[in-house]
Amino acid sequence: MSQPLPDSDRARAPVILAVETSTEIGSVALVQGGEPLAEAHHVGGPELSAWVLPAIERLLHDCSLARPDAVACGIGPGAFTGVRTACATAQALAWGWSVPLYAVGSLEAFLVTRLVLAERDGIAPPNGRWGVLMDARQGETYAAVWEVSDEPPGAVGSQGRAGGAGHCSLSPGERVGVRGNLLRSGVLRPIASPTLVPDAALASWLAGQQVGHVLGSACRKPGARGLPLDARIDLDDLLRQAAVGVARLAETTASRVDPLDLQPLYVRDRVALTEAERAAHRLGLAAPSSAAGVS
Fold first, then answer.
1. Closest Cα to residue 252, out of 154, 145, 117?
2. pLDDT tens column, 3-22
3. Cis ω for the linkage preceding 190 (within 30 of 0)
4. Cα-flanking dihedrals φ and ψ of residue 246, to 5°?
5. Tell me, what DSSP letter sits at residue 229?
6. Does residue 51 form part of some domain?
7. Which of 151, 158, 238, 246 could form a disulfide with 18 if both were Cys (CB 3.0 to 4.6 A apart)?
8. Neighbours of 218 (CB within 10 A)
């Protein structure tokens, strides 16, 4: 991962408020120059909408800040209410503060958080294709794949753009960051965008994507068994710090969005199955295919 800035440079770097609430564990953080200034988390999906704004207020107070320089949020996929909580919160704050807003895919943020935590511990994660698998309930899994490789830094950014080093201003550029490279000695390439995979098809989907390593809440489903499980870092610990991954992406590769244009990434567009579909699923007669995540 990219190294934290020296103290003198970090003091000039923008402060990013990051919000991630797409799972049962909500995470908020203030990050400057790649280092968290303050973090908070809360366990309890239904309670996150009431928790998030007071938590942000406490972080700003603790850091003696009236507002951050930019806001970033995880846009999903994930729990329907949780994704909407992060997006609505970030949208309102960015608009009210008149600061830049950055939208980050939640699954990518989880993988980047994993890499950030490994960086702090001096652990180099294995190269190869990493599958991020989160339980979508209803017999399905949110899944996406990225490749971690040892290509020289500066080759390609996370979204496929050139990643030059140097300082970037908050405006008018599309990046909030001060560093061009997400990885210290390599690149993170998207292989398969976030999608919804029926649990019955998970094994074949992972094989088709040539996934070598997995992380996430769906890793113990039968379709993911046999793949190396990332056990070095506890998943709950990762989710408690997921806002740091959101901020890292905002610093390096995420594009700025207009608050009025921010859209959650639901992947599926229905809140729940019908009673008939639920009954059929319980009997194993049909695999649900289009119900949205339930928080």
1. 154
2. 444 554 556 789 999 999 99
3. no
4. -60, -45
5. B
6. yes
7. 246
8. 23
